[in-house]
Amino acid sequence: MFQIKRICCIGAGYVGGPTCSVIAHMCPEITVTVVDVNESRIKAWNSDTLPIYEPGLKEVVESCRGRNLFFSTDIDSAIRDADLVFISVNTPTKTYGMGKGRAADLKFIEACARRIVEVSDGYKIVTEKSTVPVRAAESIRRIFDANTKPSLNLQVLSNPEFLAEGTAVRDLKEPDRVLIGGDETAEGQRAIRALCAVYEHWVPQARIITTNTWSSELSKLAANAFLAQRISSINSISALCEATGADVEEVAKAIGMDQRIGSKFLKASVGFGGSCFQKDVLNLVYLCEALNLPEVASYWQQVIDMNEYQRRRFACRIIDCLFNTVTGKKIALLGFSFKKDTGDTRESSSIYISKYLMDEGAKLFIYDPKVLKEQIIHDLSQPNISEDNPERVSELVTVTSDPYEACQSAHALVICTEWDMFKELDYEKIYKKMLKPAFIFDGRRVLDHLHAPLQDIGFQVSRQEADHTSAVPNVIFSRSKIRLRFSNAALNFCCHIKKEKKMYPQFE
Ligand SMILES: NC(=O)c1ccc[n+]([C@@H]2O[C@H](COP(=O)([O-])OP(=O)(O)OC[C@H]3O[C@@H](n4cnc5c(N)ncnc54)[C@H](O)[C@@H]3O)[C@@H](O)[C@H]2O)c1
């Protein structure tokens, strides 16, 4: 059997860095080199302050960095020396041309494929770790075939990553499954066996599943679509709860106890964020349209539409509760990362809620325990968020390093990320600092257990759904319903006119 002794990972991001650190940690006899074009990122991986925050990651990196784990910008040498090359670069949603706003941009994958074929010699296994549309491996293979040389033998595998940010190290050490897809030929099966042997250092064989390449690529997109769909499903029910007085937590518990449904991913919230769910569902939608499956495409498009609706609904609620105007009002926004235990803000719901509040002229005082000020300002200054007016960010946004400072003289406190520390804040102290009536909008329902004490302190508490009576005077609430109905209709209309059909732009 071919034995993998040296691994190169192209892309030192949220996936490449943790994945290869865990491989190096678990396989001391394999040398792992993670490379990236981004020099400052590599410098940070080689320093005491890693470029990403993940619980337990620092310990893993420090256990093997300099021994069998290396971070480098010398991409060509690392590819040349490797038996196996992971492609772990970003595959963002396209922002230009055909498929703009929906298709995955594969230009970084293509650049890697061209680099690999140019500098390689002999036998190598090239493995897609990035999330890609189905049949991307075929495009990689065609680039290899068109540029091959007599000494070269490159096998292409698909090995999508299922880690979740915030629990990446645990997910990598104890994965639910490892999925490896490859050719059904003898050569393909040999490559699959070699990669299986790497994971078998710590993953039980029963959890390593092998499939054909296309099933593997599609499984990753489908897994993210199913997860996002659950969030949108429970969020849609939360809107119904709000209109009827049912409690979505109680409904979620009741339906989640059905073993066929299960209890995970049934928490109503201000919507999903992160670099993957939206991007991958949009990619799936685009793929379906390109394959002339419009009914399937519009089914999955609804998952995205519901997420946007939920964010907008939450922002509308805040505005309505604050007597239909937030212009010039100070609002403390706690949490900016897309979920707890990560500093990643990509597609965070906080960005969109901030946008809607800024559109109304609110003054935002933002606190997050892990996100840097520069990142928050950068995210809010993007043209689609700042409405092409980045100056409004300096006028309206202050980033604080202390949650209590953020609440000083605030009309409302808005929780956008479920950081554990928000459960332990001194709310009596916060109440004294805030203007009255003091509103709390708990977009992640982290304060459910404190609901009664918070009301005793004097807060007007509004959770993600239900309980509107405690925070919202009836007259304002009914107005809110009218506005929401309108914005939903407007949203549907926008989605309708967006649906044009185009072929999927592969990168050749
Ligand atoms: N972030 C997640 O939770 C997660 C989970 C599973 C899968 N994925 C998928 O994994 C892939 C990577 O995601 P990420 O979050 O790590 O992205 P990222 O943006 O954090 O990292 C990608 C890195 O690749 C580097 N890069 C791009 N082109 C390069 C090139 N030609 N040569 C060398 N380096 C290059 C970039 O500089 C960047 O540092 C994506 O396809 C994503 O969908 C992400």
Automatic annotation (TrEMBL):
A GO molecular function held by the record: UDP-glucose 6-dehydrogenase activity
Substrates-to-products reaction catalysed: UDP-alpha-D-glucose + 2 NAD(+) + H2O = UDP-alpha-D-glucuronate + 2 NADH + 3 H(+)
UDP-glucose/GDP-mannose dehydrogenase C-terminal domain mapped to chain residues: 332-449
Pathway(s) this gene product operates in, as recorded in its UniProt entry: Nucleotide-sugar biosynthesis; UDP-alpha-D-glucuronate biosynthesis; UDP-alpha-D-glucuronate from UDP-alpha-D-glucose: step 1/1
Entry annotated with the keyword Transcription regulation: no
GO cellular component: nucleus
EC number of the protein: 1.1.1.22
Subunit details: Homohexamer.
Protein name per the record: UDP-glucose 6-dehydrogenase
Organism lineage: Eukaryota, Metazoa, Chordata, Craniata, Vertebrata
